[in-house]
Structures are given as structure tokens and as C-alpha cells.
Amino acid sequence: MVYLKAEPRTLLERVGQDPNRPLLQGDQPLETLTRLLSERAAYYEQAHLTLQVDRMSCRLVANRIWSHFSKRHHLD
């Protein structure tokens, strides 16, 4: 499992307008997201790999994940 960790403001910018995220459609989506992250932190932190992705491109994130698991499982 991989945890793509980001600050609440970054996450809100990325998914806040998505109609498939009903919990973020209320009046205070940043506060809601911050609360949800706090409530779920113990579960997220169980991931095999955690990447702080606030300033990372999708390509860089994918490369970091591939690099981590390919070294761990000798994939090429």
C-alpha cells in the first residue's frame, strides 16, 4: 500500500470540486478534509511507502513508487 501524503490545502485544490467527493461539498471543505485526515491518519501511516507529494508531478510520484518496489522485489 502507498500513502500519497499531501497538505489539506493541496488535496482540496486537487479534488475539492469533484462531485464524487460528497464529504467535501459542504460549507467548510478545508476543515472537513483536515478533520478526515486526522481521523484516518493511523490507517494511512500503515502504508508500506509514504510519499509527501505536495510539490511532485504525477510522473515523479510514479517513478518513486516504481523505484521503491522494483528494488524491493528486484523488478526491472
What strand order characterises the main sheet?
1-2
What is the number of E strands? Answer: 2
Q: Are there runs of 5+ residues with pLDDT below 50, and where?
A: none
- Fraction of residues in β-strands: 5-15%
Compressed to H and E, one letter per element, the order equals EHHEH
Output mean pLDDT: 91
The helix fraction, in percent, is: 40-55%
How many helices? The count is 3
End-to-end C-alpha gap: 20 Å
Number of domains: 1
List the helices and strands and how they pair.
Elements: E1 2-5, H1 8-15, H2 29-44, E2 49-52, H3 58-73
Parallel strand pairs: 1-2
Helix pairs in contact: 1-2
Describe it.
This protein has a two-stranded parallel ribbon with strand order 1-2. By secondary structure, the chain is mainly α. Helix 1 packs across helix 2. It contains three helices and two strands; from the N terminus they run E-H-H-E-H. The protein has one domain. The model has no long low-confidence stretch (mean pLDDT 91).
Short summary:
This protein is mainly α and 76 residues long. It has helices spanning 8-15, 29-44, 58-73; strands at residues 2-5, 49-52. Strands 1-2 form a two-stranded parallel sheet.
